Amino acid sequence: MLTRRRLEMALGALWLLDGALQLQPGMFTSTFFSNTLGMANMGLPGPVSRLDFAMADAVLWHPVVWNALFAGMQLALGVALLRGGLPTRWARPASVAWALAVWVVGEGLGGMFMGGSSVLNGAPGPAILYAFVTLLVWPRADTGATGRAGGVLGRWALAPWTALWMAVALLEVAGPNHLPFVPGAEIRNGGVGEPAPLAALNHAVGRLVGFHGAQFAVALGLAATAVAVLPLWRPVRRPALAAGMVLISFLGVVGGDLGGILTGSGTDPGVAPLAVLLGLALWPARDPVGGQLADVTPAHGRARRERAHPGAADRRPRHPVPVAAR
């Protein structure tokens, strides 16, 4: 069983990976920050654009120092989340704050305001998912260290999942993503610089999509909408979450190319690993009474069970007597 603590440790491992990728030689150059922050600024609303410009101006003067700080922050978050105890308690709010800062400045709100953005080119951005997963594995007083996830979001635990997939669906409505040649070309171009097997897979799928960009966009948009909405209905929550994790994993490899980390220029593994971790954090446990799916928030699940089966807890043997002692 994936407990809250194990999910939190997986989140820490991803922060460690990001920190390690940030230490690649190419990340310590002004060219890297100029390209990254310049791309992130495209289409941003005025106040956010000015913030991005100000950050870029500061970073470009001392790229080595700033990049070392960025990498150190992510490595520290990873170590703290893996260690547990007091370091982890401090790391949780820091993880949310840092993820939001990266999403706004480094990813330009995940490219949501940039024309032609889609899940194939990294939208809605992995950084916001770090914040969502942190909130889902952040324990409340009634969950304990090993309880199931649900976190401080409580009854709103499914909101991040729904928001993620509705964003994917809405981006597919954008005009550029419906052009006949765009999705296929994006998938084929994603293989540039990748290892031969991954590049071959991208080229094969890109050729298969071909000039059917509109059909691809409609199909992906409808699938994303279904994956966003169906988990709200408890009887199909598990298969809907599973379908979403399979779909995002496929898109994370084909088109997403694992965030480009195999090319030496990627700073994170992309949206897919975080979305899978999000789905696992929301995966419902079986209700011990009646075999029904429990809610993602244990306290709410216990309250419902007590209403549906009054006195069930009292009927359970707490300290069974061994046969030999009778």
In words, what does this structure look like?
By secondary structure, the chain is mainly α. It is 61% helix and 0% strand. The protein is built from 14 helices and no strands. It has helices at 4-22, 30-40, 46-61, 63-83, 86-106, 127-137, 159-173, 182-190, 196-209, 213-229, 237-253, 271-282, 298-308, 312-315. Helix 4 (63-83) packs antiparallel against helix 5 and helix 8 (182-190) packs antiparallel against helix 9 (196-209). It is globular, with a radius of gyration of 22 Å. The two termini are 35 Å apart.
- The amount of helix comes to 55-70%
> What is the number of beta strands?
0
Average of per-residue pLDDT values: 86
For the biggest sheet, the summary is: none
Element-level helix/strand string: HHHHHHHHHHHHHH
Shape: globular
What distance lies between the first and last C-alpha atoms, to the nearest angstrom?
A: 35 Å
Assembly type of the chains comes to single chain
Radius of gyration: 22 Å
Class derived from helix and strand content: mainly alpha
Proportion of strand residues? under 5%
Q: Which residues sit in consecutive blocks of at least 5 with pLDDT less than 50? A: 297-306, 316-326
Question: How many individual helices?
Answer: 14
